[in-house]
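Exercise 7. Given the encoded structure of a 475-residue chain, write a plausible sequence.
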């Protein structure tokens, strides 16, 4: 195996009881025992150890920025910190190298699922369109020994459809259910971690129960696809390529673990930047790699045109749910959504009026300062919104800290603008219009309103009381 992939020092940035470490500040968690310390010195063998380090090598050697919520022992345990730290390129190459040995009983099928918000990063880095970047990235991963490369858009389809269905139900029952509204989006793992570990029962009943696209993809690969390939889940090593480090922590959730096979739905999460490191170590440019189409979950069929969802920088939960609710609840067709900027560009709202009355009021709340303000309003009973799309990263998922950062950990605004432009060029498709999704609802989930849907596409959140009074924080 060529290349040395530096193991990174885990730095967790965010909330700390009694003290806020906000956007751009740091709170370092040091190793608590010799075993953790020794892990830092454990690197892969390589013929290229003296290679000049790039921007991401320097960043990785210094620290990893997780999202703002993951600062202290009240948010993340030392064991979780170690397990997050272990999800790196080394883990992937251990499996790939094992597959090259003769003992086939230990071989694993390696499947990589790529988040759509990661693709613009590679397109911008190599100055190519997103479709070409996707195909060449597939080709690169295949050259490493990966067997299947999937697009997680289909998992986001399920997540959005289940979220908009749940919102309509909550809206219709808001007078009977105490915690019906506002409904908070559930796709961002940084937000979920913060809500469960710090805010808990104050907020978690309001969070949509639909799983995130990452974890639905995990269920698809280790469930449906494994069955199609006649494989047990533990014989598949499933990697997610994502824009942010928080996804690594999400993969560790206990409800995404199959005890029967001792198998996680997602075995390893690598950020876009970590994949880029591998390319650099191998001195590979995507422009030189053979184009290969995405695989599908349906066997030999290859994916066609790359598509995305509405939403400027993320999966577009707000836009899909708003349009769906307007039609389903009020029989109003909304073609274009107009955002109104409030305190800052990461706090915007959308409203729907009927006969002079505001019947829907949605908000997009990005970054933890805006999230905290929203939660304070909820605590005081002054939250006026029916739905809130919550994302930990200011600017949304394209601005994930695993891809849109400079060497010193600050946002790379020029790169982000490039990513936004190439992402906007990808055609939009409504989740309802996906034939694959409709097929899976019937074949895999036994119908759109089945018990299997509830068990497979939804989750539960911790209801424990907060460990600290997080509302005494002064921003």
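Solution.
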């Amino acid at each position: 195996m060529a290349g040395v992939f530096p193991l990174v020092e885990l730095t967790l940035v965010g909330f700390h009881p009694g003290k806020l470490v906000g956007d751009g500040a740091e709170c370092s968690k040091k190793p608590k025992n010799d075993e953790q310390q020794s892990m830092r010195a454990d690197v892969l063998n390589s013929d290229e150890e003296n290679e000049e380090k790039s921007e991401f090598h320097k960043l990785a050697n210094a620290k990893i920025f997780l999202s703002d919520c993951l600062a202290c022992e009240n948010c993340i345990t030392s064991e979780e910190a170690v397990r997050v730290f272990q999800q790196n390129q080394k883990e992937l190459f251990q499996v790939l190298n094992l597959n090259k040995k003769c003992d086939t009983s230990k071989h694993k099928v390696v499947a990589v699922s790529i988040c759509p918000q990661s693709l613009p990063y590679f397109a911008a880095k190599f100055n190519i369109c997103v479709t070409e970047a996707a195909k060449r990235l597939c080709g690169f991963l295949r050259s490493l020994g990966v067997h299947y490369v999937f697009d997680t858009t289909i998992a986001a389809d399920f997540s959005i459809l289940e979220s908009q269905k749940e919102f309509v139900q909550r809206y219709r029952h808001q007078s009977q259910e105490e915690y019906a509204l506002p409904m908070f989006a559930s796709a961002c793992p940084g937000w979920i971690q913060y809500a469960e570990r710090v805010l808990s029962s104050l907020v978690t009943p309001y969070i949509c129960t639909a799983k995130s696209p990452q974890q639905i993809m995990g269920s698809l690969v280790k469930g449906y696809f494994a069955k199609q390939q006649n494989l047990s889940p533990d014989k598949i090593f499933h990697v997610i390529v994502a824009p942010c480090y928080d996804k690594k922590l999400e993969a560790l959730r206990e409800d995404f673990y199959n005890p029967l096979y001792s198998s996680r739905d997602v075995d390893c999460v690598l950020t876009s930047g970590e994949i880029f490191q591998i390319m650099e170590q191998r001195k590979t440019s995507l422009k030189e790699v053979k184009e290969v189409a995405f695989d599908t979950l349906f066997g030999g069929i290859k994916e066609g045109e790359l598509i995305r969802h509405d939403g400027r920088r993320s999966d577009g939960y707000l836009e899909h749910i708003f349009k769906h609710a307007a039609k389903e609840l009020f029989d109003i067709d909304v073609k274009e959504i107009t955002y109104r900027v409030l305190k800052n560009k990461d706090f915007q709202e959308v409203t729907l009026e009927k006969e002079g009355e505001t019947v829907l009021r949605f908000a997009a709340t990005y970054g933890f300062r805006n999230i905290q303000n929203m939660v304070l309003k909820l605590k005081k009973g002054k939250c006026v919104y029916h739905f809130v799309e919550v994302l930990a990263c200011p600017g949304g998922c394209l601005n994930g800290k695993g891809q849109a950062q400079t060497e010193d950990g600050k946002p790379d605004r020029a790169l982000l603008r490039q990513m936004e432009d190439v992402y906007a060029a990808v055609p939009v498709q409504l989740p309802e219009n996906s034939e694959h999704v409709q097929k899976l609802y019937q074949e895999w989930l036994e119908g759109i309103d089945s018990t299997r849907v509830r068990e497979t596409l939804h989750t539960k959140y911790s209801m424990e009381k907060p460990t600290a009074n997080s509302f005494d924080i002064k921003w």
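Remark. The CA atoms of residues 224 and 444 lie 7 Å apart. Students should compare their own answers with the one above.
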